[in-house]
Write a structure and sequence with these properties.
Structural class: alpha+beta
Oligomer: single chain
Helix content: 10-25%
Strand content: 15-25%
Shape: globular
Radius of gyration: 18 Å
Number of domains: 1
Number of helices: 4
Order of helices and strands: HHHEEEEEEEEEH
Largest sheet: 7 strands, antiparallel
Length: about 250
């Protein structure tokens, strides 16, 4: 998984402009923090996969036992396990254009990020195959997606996706190592991976909250937008509450 950032440049009246600028930085920091965590988990999954490759994805069939108290009243919460169920489909590799591949590793959690001193639920699910890694996440903030494009880099493009405001943009995974020196089996200058991300409003009216689906290649080549959009078009409508207002 934005603040009312589109209004940052729209007015320069008094302290509100400063508040909006600060809010914009909060949003970008939250997005970066989520990606940093995702890549930390990705490194851990790579290590686990190298030790013992995993078979098919396993998700619980149980419904969420509770809704985080930070979720606004009337909003449909989607848990990490429900994100898992959305990615756990037999045609996942085919949608990625790599039929026959299997999941090497997967992980997810019902995490949260801090925005303006408050914890906002940000569940996520990550799946790694031989060619691609896929991340699916949700954010239950009150920020409109239509205000995000100006904060997400020069190539960020607003669009309508499945009848909802969306932004398609580029990012990169992070290369880092814990401890004083990198493991001997990894080069200190390991490349980051170009990532393509699509963030889509949780409801057609863009009343706050979003879903984010990200794609990067294990060979560090730039992912194909057509693959990302095809994947998103098949996966997002399967999320609970998608067909209605999201509440």
């Amino acid at each position: 998984m934005t603040e009312e950032a589109g209004r940052v440049a729209a007015t320069g009246r008094g302290p509100n402009a400063w508040v909006q600028v600060i809010s914009a930085f909060v949003v970008v920091a939250a997005l970066a923090g989520g990606l940093w965590k995702a890549q930390k988990d990705h490194v851990a999954r790579e290590d686990a996969a190298a030790a013992a490759p995993v078979g098919p994805i396993s998700c619980s069939s149980a419904a969420p036992t509770g809704v985080p108290t930070m979720v606004r009243a009337g909003v449909k919460y989607v848990s990490a396990n429900q994100l898992c169920q959305a990615l756990n489909r037999p045609d996942l590799a085919a949608l990625l254009g790599t039929p026959g591949e299997r999941a090497l590793s997967y992980s997810g959690d019902d995490d949260s990020v801090t925005l303006g001193g408050s914890d906002v639920p940000a569940p996520e699910m990550n799946v790694t195959l031989r060619t691609y890694s896929v991340e699916l996440s949700a954010s239950f903030d009150h920020f409109a997606v239509q205000d995000m494009a100006g904060l997400l880099g020069g190539d960020a493009r607003e669009r309508t996706f499945l009848g909802r405001p969306a932004v398609l943009y580029s990012d990169r995974t992070y290369s880092y190592f814990w401890g004083i020196r990198p493991p001997e089996d990894r080069a200190a200058g390991a490349p980051s991976h170009p990532t393509r991300r699509l963030v889509v409003a949780r409801d057609p009216k863009d009343g706050g909250g979003s879903y984010d689906i990200a794609l990067w290649r294990e060979d560090a080549e730039r992912p194909d937008d057509a693959v990302l959009l095809r994947l998103a078009a098949r996966i997002l409508p399967t999320l609970p509450g998608w067909g209605g207002s999201g509440s």
